[in-house]
Amino acid sequence: MYRRLLLVFALAFTAVLLAPSRGSAAPLQEDETLKLPCGRVVKVLSVSKVEYSKGVMALMVRYQTTLSVDEHKELSEEVDDFWKFAQKDVDHLGYHEAIISSNEVPRGIFVTTNRVLNFIFEKGSDGKWTRLNRTDFMAAE
Questions:
Q1: Torsion on CA atoms 60, 84, 29, 114, rounded to nearest 10
Q2: Angle at 135 between CA 131 and CA 138, to 5 degrees
Q3: Residue 97's Cα: distance from chain center in Å?
């Protein structure tokens, strides 16, 4: 009897370990909260198709950060961590361009404002993704 119970427990434990994690299968959802590998927690605001730069189609993923757009180094690291989640959606949907939009938490009571910093990722002919350094597009709004 104990052997059977032990076998059932071992099989159940193995099934839990082999089950896909959140990061590997499910697409990003609006209002979803993610814990990034760096330890920060961010909120997905939207996932949408956009056209920019002379007809180039891209997937735009907007998320809310607790960082300021002035914290360039920390924000850059956060975007690279967030990209690990977003890249799966971009690849699955077949895009070769993506825009990750970091949005500050809105400020104000009656009239709210927030600043945004955008980062462009491009898939090369070798299939590897690169974050571009297009400072004109990355300008804070």
A1: -60
A2: 75
A3: 14
Q: What whole-number distance in Å separates Cα of residue 19 and Cα of residue 40?
A: 24
- CA angle (16 as vertex; 10, 19 as ends), nearest 5: 135
Query: Domains of the chain: which residue ranges?
Result: 27-131
Q: Enumerate the H helices of the chain as residue ranges.
A: 2-18, 22-25, 72-93
In tens, the pLDDT along 46-73 reads 999 998 777 889 999 999 999 999 999 9
- Supply the pTM of this predicted model: 0.74
Q: What are phi and psi of 64, to 5 degrees?
A: -100, 130
Which pLDDT does position 135 carry in this prediction? 56
How far is Cα 47 from Cα 29, in angstroms, rounded to an integer?
Answer: 7
